[in-house]
Amino acid sequence: MSGSAGAGAGFGFTTGQVIQEWGYDEDVSLEVREAIEVATGTELVDEDYGDVCDGSLIWWREEDAEVEDLTDLLVDAQANLDDGGLIWVLTPKPGRPGHVRPADVEDAARTAGMHATSAVSAAPTWSGIRIAARSRGR
């Protein structure tokens, strides 16, 4: 697959980083997963990973729960992050089953003490919103 490494690097992940994945299901974009693994040179770790990681990838759909539950998940993801770690929330694009409004993701991030910084078209059926976490040193 050409361009995979570039796509993974587009998320801001780099070689050697450990990325924790939340909300994996059969509908996720395998291309996005592969691109991140190529960019980092490591396999994604799952929700049960018990060590500090460098970033998080959250797949979030309307049927997964209410905004408050996304807030809790963001807090959990942040608790495992090393300083400066990136969190990406991927949601189905408008018109797709499970679509989540970007404002709902932004509200959940704000409630968790974080903020949305940018958005990308992550795959043909998925959009991504980058969430900036607070630094542990502040």
From TrEMBL:
Q: Tell me any Pfam family this protein matches.
A: DUF3052
Would you tell me the protein name for this molecule? Answer: DUF3052 family protein
